Amino acid sequence: MKSPFTVLIVEDDHTSTVVASTMLNQRGYDVICAKNGRDGLEIAQSARVDLIILDLNLPLFSGQQFLNARAQCEVMKHIPCIVTSAHVQYNYIDDAKKLGANYYFTKPLDWHHLINRVEDLMNKLPSPDLAKAAV
What we know:
Blueprint: E1 6-10, H1 14-26, E2 30-34, H2 37-46, E3 51-55, H3 63-72, E4 81-85, H4 90-98, E5 103-106, H5 111-123, H6 128-134
């Protein structure tokens, strides 16, 4: 059965995007991809997105800028977010968590661990189909 959940991947590395989207698709999630922070922000504000996987090092609009905008936006601030980054310094991790990141993974990524965290977060969300039926 196909999942009613949609994951937005905001990542400029093609290989990372392909690996993550393939693994998520295999688990039945719908996946939307953006190659830069600006496009990711537009998608997150306009599409029904249930979870965001966000790289910090992005062109046009950094992951840090994305997190700042997300924290200020009523539409996005409650969407769970997993940050991925090559930055291992504590200040990056601390800043991301202060801005609402649920998890912070350093690169190179342990893909199975990342996908397990996605599934943990998705299991905590109400099914969009049940939410619609309750209205």
